[in-house]
Amino acid sequence: VQLQASGGGQVQAGGSLRLSCKAVGMNFRIFRFAWYRQAPGKQRELVADIDVNHDQNYADFVEGRFSISRDNVWRMLYLQMNSLKPEDTAVYYCNSQQWWGQGTLVTVSS
Question: What tens digit of pLDDT does each residue of 85-98 get?
Answer without folding.
Answer: 999 999 999 999 99
